[in-house]
Amino acid sequence: AVRGPPGPGLSAPCLCRRERVRAMFYHAYEHYLESAFPYDELRPLTCDGQDTWGSFSLTLIDALDTLLILGNASEFQRVVNVLQEGVDFDIDVNASVFETNIRVVGGLLSAHLLSRKAGVEVEAGWPCSGPLLRMAEEAARKLLPAFQTPTGMPYGTVNLLHGVNPGETPVTCTAGIGTFIVEFATLSHLTGDPVFEDVARKALKALWKNRSDIGLVGNHIDVVTAKWVAQDAGIGAGVDSYFEYLVKGAILLQDKELMSMFLEYNKAIKNYTKFDDWYLWVQMYKGTVSMPVFQSLEAYWPGLQSLIGDVDNAMRTFLNYYTVWKQFGGLPEFYNIPQGYTVDKREGYPLRPELIESAMYLYRATRDPTLLELGRDAVESIEKISKVDCGFATIKDLRDHRLDNRMESFFLAETIKYLYLLFDPDNFMHNDGSDFDVVVTPYGECVLNAGGYIFNTEAHPIDPAALHCCRKRKEEQWEVEDLLREFYSRKKTKKFTLKRAPDHGEGENAKNSEDASSVKAGEKRNSKKSSHSLLSCPSQSFNSKLAVLGQVFLDNT
User: Fold this and answer.
1) 333 is catalytic
2) Is 414 a catalytic residue?
3) How far apart are CA 124 and CA 128, in angstroms?
4) Which helix (H) or strand (E) holds 481?
């Protein structure tokens, strides 16, 4: 039972719903551990498990950061140890490059960056080193052979032991090419190896280069010849997270080029695919309607619109999607907009998070109570229709509520997480920068846990400030040196010298440099509990200000 009054900013109904969501998580999580671990996923109708995406104990990796968001640091710590001992990427398995990146690499990176907050004893040099970071890097290196194509666009599948199979199809969906920059850039910044960010950028730009004359991209492309195989353009399945990562990559990396690319796409999307606040599928070269269909995966779009400050349009589209939810108690995979009904053989709802994700973002931006109503409806629907003795089952058909014997790992990674954050306004994920930690690394001080988290497309949060912990650009170092010299000259104190810090990427020499010798690697201090010298004032990086209240500040605002 929940005791005592709700916390600050938390109404009693929200508190009650938050605790219901917590109970949903543990009903699913505990049955996974009991009946399915170490398999990837739980089969809730038969109370057993199955490997689906590569035999990684995937649900455990996907659920790890959700544990901390729900406040369970002790289980987080236990699972970290289990994963270090039990997960092996040197296996003869054909794995999806896309899914392995967003679920495994993304989940491990997020857990790595949250480890200290969860009370894990981190090693010297963290967050620039650590066992979960090494696991994420190992998994990502297994994916690199897929990017060795004439275009730089990756194959969709790779064998973790042998690389790309000789007979592998060169046809990959757009999202499977353009959904790497968040995880791979984070890896490059933390490890010092630029190869990850380089291949992700090359793939993004290859798609941009091959857009049509009217500014649209299709659904599937040949990564060898760069010829479009499926020419349907839209914002849903097969394309979705490419657009998402242009925006989130721009925020994470403070990259104007990525944002300008998205804004150009956004113009074409509005011109050719938007009708009455719905988004249809059109032919990428002509702009003619090919499918007047709403796909459940498109429901991320209002949340993405809120990130660029287009809140009014986002709310109108969200309300369209919400009417579909209320019609069926969930979002069918395909919904025929003119007919107002499901599409044959696409009537299922696998407990996807996208509409709840958009509700969470929009509620942060507007505090509109309608968004909480969606959260309430989602909890009621999922519990009433999907809950079984061993977890929560995919809904095979929303018309008659038949179930399928599968619980996808994203249910714990995304659906539960976004529901919980919708009903928990005081969660540390919503930090506005008023609280933060100062961490001392071999490269100097950096600020962490100040908020502005970037969720990857599997809802694994990345702290953007962490990307600045493991390197110092020369121009930044010189600017600091100039300020220090000016300060000391005005104070007329004793003379001092500062050596230029080595560039990021100079390997162990950088880590062992004399500049870092006076810094105790791994020393950790909380900003509220320690006083800083005049020369160690923590500053909030520009990128951590970008996502305040769900907005991105563009040059012209």
Assistant:
1) yes
2) no
3) 9
4) helix 474-491
Contact at 8 Å (CB) between 5 and 15?
Answer: no
Which residue in 240, 244, 298, 437 is the catalytic one? 240
Question: To which residue do tokens 């010297």 refer?
Answer: 124
Please tell me what DSSP assigns to residue 101.
Answer: I
Active-site residue identified among 65, 99, 183, 515:
99
In the numeric block, which tokens belong to residue 453? 């988290």
Residues with Cβ within 8 Å of 85's Cβ and at least 6 positions away in sequence, in order, are: none
Please tell me the distance from the alpha carbon of residue 75 to that of residue 542, in angstroms, as a whole number: 34
Q: Is the pLDDT of residue 331 over 60?
A: yes
Residue 445, strand partner residues: 440
What is the C-alpha to C-alpha distance for residues 543 and 452, in angstroms, rounded to an integer? 8
30 included as an active-site residue: no
457 in a known ligand binding site: yes
Secondary structure of residue 155 in the 3-state scheme: coil
Edge-first strand order for the sheet with 232-233 is 232-233, 281-283, 289-291
198 alpha-carbon distance from chain centroid: 19
Which residue has tokens 């919503």?
A: 430
Tell me how many degrees the CA angle 368-268-320 measures, rounded to the nearest 5. Answer: 30
Looking at the predicted structure, is the pLDDT value of residue 477 above 60?
A: no
Residues 6+ apart with CB under 8 A from 14: 6, 372, 423, 424, 425
Q: Would you state the structure tokens that stand for residue 289, as one six-digit string?
A: 């309607």
Nearest one of 94, 184, 77 to 131, comparing CA atoms: 77
Catalytic residue among 354, 377, 414, 458: 354
Tell me if 518 sits within 8 A of 330, measured CB to CB.
Answer: no
User: What sign has the CA pseudo-torsion 469, 471, 476, 477?
Assistant: positive
Annotation marks residue 240 as catalytic: yes
Phi-psi region of 192 (alpha: psi -120 to 50; beta: other; left: phi over 0): left
User: Helices 311-328 and 354-366 meet at what angle, rounded to 10?
Assistant: 140
**And the tokens for 178?**
């353009």
Residue 296, token pair as written in the block: 């459940």
How far is it, in rounded angstroms, from Cα 449 to Cα 464?
Answer: 9
pLDDT tens digits along 119-176: 999 999 999 999 999 999 999 999 999 999 999 999 999 999 999 999 999 999 999 9
Per-residue CA distances from 548 to 8, 53, 116, 463 (Å): 20, 35, 24, 14
